[in-house]
Design goal:
The protein has helices at about 15-45, 50-55, 60-85, 90-125, 130-145, 145-160, 165-190, 195-215, 235-265, 270-285, 285-305, 310-345, 350-360, 365-380, 385-410, 415-440. It starts with 12 loop residues before the first helix and ends in a 9-residue tail after the last helix. By secondary structure, it is mostly helical.
Length: about 450
């Protein structure tokens, strides 16, 4: 094609979705690689305590950014629907309103993340041996909030327009840079966890510069003009209407995951290290899920915006099926190779045992996670963000927290912490499947 953007309202459905999803998959792979590089280098050069400090911050980071990432999903839906309807005027307003909102978010995250993280970590019962390094890592990480937020915003804009290739190129560059900086700061200069955090911040800033250059220099209708970055109230209300349910869902799930991390922390640094190592491995298993989730949201948004309902339905079925199959194949591989994979992060027998146990309980149920995420993506693309929000709030937040609260009083084993994820994945999948099959979601929302 002549242009990087793609109208997903035309062409073979399977080819269109796969062509869009594959660059997302590769981009997510590289992103996970540089996230994992932090853990691998920290674990091997700085030890289990440092690994626990870095890996245990993930749930808190997602708690702080989850609300705004959810609203960014809403912005992507708005942009993709206007793009599919060929309404360039409102698409331009949506892009610039999204950028204005992101700049505000970056300032808020920087202030809250750098000042409040010691208190948040204390609430999570972070062990004293880990606390200082965790605080240092988080404070440096959130000093780079503008890079994190604007990168996600710019790539979200490009993906909403059907361009998944350029985000891939930029992510590959930043991922490789992150790995190199990790080695330089930690292995060469002898820095502690601040080296890992600094490497992440700098690589994200490079990604933002590349994304900004693309959006500012293009001659297409979606070109960004710095003078036009401002809030358009009707568009902002539309973005929030689509995105707030996803943001609230992310925040609630993040709170539940912080609760899970709290229970892991009570078992000590070895449990934190082992489970943290597993979480890095698990991130790779989620790659086909996140890839087809993003592809489905854009596909459904563009096609429903263009009133191509039969095409929308066929594309949804194709994307869900592919995601389920890929997730389960990867889950089986992780189940079989768990000792080898966890062993790449730590050779301490106790930490290794915690990580392998968690992997072998969760891995075979990845198909349920894929189903929940893909069904939610289809509904969001159709403009029904509130449905997955309520489902996820009920099962991934309320039930998850209640289950751990009750089981913690009945046993001193970590098994309930490991089983809470497959249990809640199953409940949400059943509920969303019933809604998807019984309700005419395709025609429930008109733009």
């Amino acid at each position: 094609m002549a242009h990087a953007t793609e109208r997903m309202t035309e062409g073979p459905i399977g080819k269109t979705l796969v062509r869009f999803a594959v660059p997302l998959f590769l981009g997510n792979l590289f992103q996970q690689m540089y996230n994992t590089a932090d853990a691998l280098i920290v674990g091997n050069f700085l030890g289990d305590t440092a690994l626990a400090a870095v890996s245990s911050t993930g749930s808190l980071i997602f708690l702080l950014i989850g609300l705004f990432q959810g609203i960014a999903i809403g912005a992507g839906v708005v942009i993709s629907r206007y793009f599919g309807a060929e309404d360039n005027k409102n698409m331009h307003k949506a892009i610039h309103t999204n950028l204005a909102f992101s700049l505000l978010v970056a300032l808020i995250l920087t202030a809250v993340g750098t000042t409040m993280c010691p208190l948040f970590l204390k609430w999570m019962k972070t062990p004293a041996a880990v606390m200082a390094q965790a605080v240092t890592y988080l404070q440096i990480y959130f000093c780079g909030s503008i890079g994190l937020v604007l990168y996600n915003t710019c790539t979200g804009i490009m993906q909403a327009l059907g361009d998944s290739r350029h985000p891939l190129y930029y992510l590959v560059i930043s991922s490789l840079l992150n790995v190199v900086l990790d080695m330089v700061f930690i292995a060469v200069f002898g820095m502690d966890v601040e080296g890992a955090a600094l490497a992440t911040v700098l690589s994200q800033l490079i990604s933002v510069l590349l994304c900004a250059r693309r959006l500012l220099c293009t001659t297409e209708d979606y070109q960004v003009s710095l003078c036009d970055i401002r809030f358009d109230r009707p568009i902002l209300r539309e973005i929030i209407r689509y995105g707030l349910p996803s943001g609230l869902q992310n925040s609630a799930i993040a709170i539940a995951n912080v609760c899970v991390q709290f229970h892991i922390n009570t078992f000590g640094a070895m449990a934190m290290s082992g489970c943290g190592a597993y979480s890095k491995i698990e991130g790779f298993a989620f790659l086909p899920i996140t890839s087809f989730t993003a592809a489905l949201t854009t596909f459904v948004g563009q096609n429903s915006g263009g009133a191509k309902y039969e095409r929308t339905k066929k594309g949804a079925k194709f994307g869900i099926t592919c995601s389920l199959l890929l997730a389960e194949v990867i889950g089986l591989i992780i189940f079989l190779a768990a000792p080898l994979l966890i062993g790449a992060f730590t050779d301490t027998p106790e930490a290794l045992a915690f990580g392998v146990d968690k992997a072998r309980i969760c891995a075979l149920f990845y198909c349920l996670l894929a189903a929940s995420h893909c069904l939610s993506a289809v509904l969001r693309g159709a403009g029904l963000s509130s449905v997955p929000m309520f489902v996820m709030l009920a099962f991934w937040c309320v039930i998850r927290v209640l289950f751990l609260t009750v089981t913690a009083r009945l046993t001193d084993s970590i098994l309930p912490v490991n089983w809470v994820y497959p249990l809640t994945w199953a409940l949400s999948t059943v509920t969303l499947t019933i809604y998807y099959c019984k309700v005419d979601w395709l025609h429930r929302h008109k733009m």
